[in-house]
Structures are given as structure tokens and as C-alpha cells.
Amino acid sequence: MRIFQILGIVLSIIISVHSACDVCASDEHCEDPTCICNSTLYNNTGSSPSPTLDCTAGIMSVYISKCWLEQNGYNSTYIRLGNDTCIAAREIVNDTALMALHRPLSTNDCGNNVYINSTHVIYSNKLYIYGIFQNFIINISCIYPLYTRVSVNFAIRPLIGVTQISIPGTLSTLTVTMVIYKDVGFSSLLNENEPVYVESTLYVAVMIPNLDVENFKIKVLDIYASASESGPTFYLLQDGIVR
């Protein structure tokens, strides 16, 4: 009886130590306990690293193939921005293993520099990639028009509206939220079933998360009411002037 008990303990220890890989991408294979790049899918081309940059929704996102880096003699575990504490992490995007960085577009974040000219705001940083034979420092930047006018239409119902707006001249988008309140303290939301009478006082809040308030401002130019999409419109605010 004691012999069987000892064997059971040994087996349970072996089972508890064994662990499977995390989810591997299509260009990786599992070598317990980690995912390893499949070197047969990438050639050593000798070309320079070519990251992808996305500036959507006020976030600077940088992506570069993890397995391409390793096959071409670069250190995939230490890719950073201007601030050496801002380091890329592995992500699987479209079933491919990438090293990725996601940082808000704000002044001084991870070494961001902001330049403003007469027409645009430019957020710039440097991407550091280290290799066996040579290192690369790549300049990256997100560029936004300094002044832009966009239209956002909300129906009274729902009283909390959310939409995506595109920034002209870029591939970027921002999320805009509009909320209607009944009180000057912006604490009591207008109920969907409450009637709104002529000359009622309403308080409208327009918010854009992730907007760099040091360099961008929100200006509401027009607010109007209409009983239906095709009905006449009555302006409460037009060209920034209360009607």
C-alpha cells in the first residue's frame, strides 16, 4: 500500500511541472514552455528593419515582425523608444508574432517631442533596434492638422452619443462622446423619456478621450434640434454663437 502511495506522489509532481506553450502565432512553433520562431519562413535579407506606424485614436502604435528581427540578427527582446523604460512587447496580430509599442500622443511621454508650425502639430520620437552587426535608430512621427473642422451629428435619443471622427489629411480617428445634462453641475443626466420644452435649459458636454489637451482644444460650433432627420432644424448654437 505504501508503494502505491509513493508512486502516486511522484506522478502528480511530474504532471504539475509539465506546462504547454502559450498561444503561438502562425510563424512560430511550440517548444515547451515557449513559442519559438519558425526560421524556415524568413530569409536573412540583410535589409534594414521596417516598422509599421499607426496614429489612430490619439495613440502612437509601432509594430515590427518579431521573427524577421530574430532571423536577421536583431534583438527582439529590447526594442525601445527615446525613454529606455518604454520597451516593446510581443503581440499576435493577424496570426503573426509582432513586437509592439502603444503610447499616448502626449508631450514628453516616452521621450515624445512636439513641434508646432503654422499648419500642423507633429509628435516625434525615436525607435531603437539593436542588432549583432549594427544598431538602428528610426525616426517616427504622427502629424495632425493644427486646425480642423469636423461635423458630428447626434440624435437626442440616445442622450449619450458616441461616434468616430476622421481627422482630415490623416488616417487617424478620434472618439467623440456627447452627453446632455439638466443641471449646471453636469451631474444629472437628461432621461430618455423626459420631455424637453421650448426655452428649457440644457447643458451639453463634448469629450474626446486621449486628446492631448496641451496642444489640442475642442470647439463646438453648431448645436441644433430637429423632430426628425428630414424635419426643420432649430439652431441652439450656430458658428459658435448662442441663438
Automatic annotation (TrEMBL):
UniProt domain ZP: residue ranges: 54-243
SMART domains, alphabetized: ZP (SM00241)
Highest taxon of source: Eukaryota
The entry's keywords: Disulfide bond, Signal
Signal peptide start and end residues: 1-19
InterPro entries for this protein: ZP-N (IPR055356), ZP_dom (IPR001507)
Cross-referenced Gene3D superfamilies: Zona pellucida, ZP-N domain
Signal found in the keyword field: yes
UniProt entry tagged with the keyword Cell division: no
Protein name, UniProt field: ZP domain-containing protein
Highest classification ranks of the organism: Eukaryota, Metazoa, Chordata, Craniata, Vertebrata
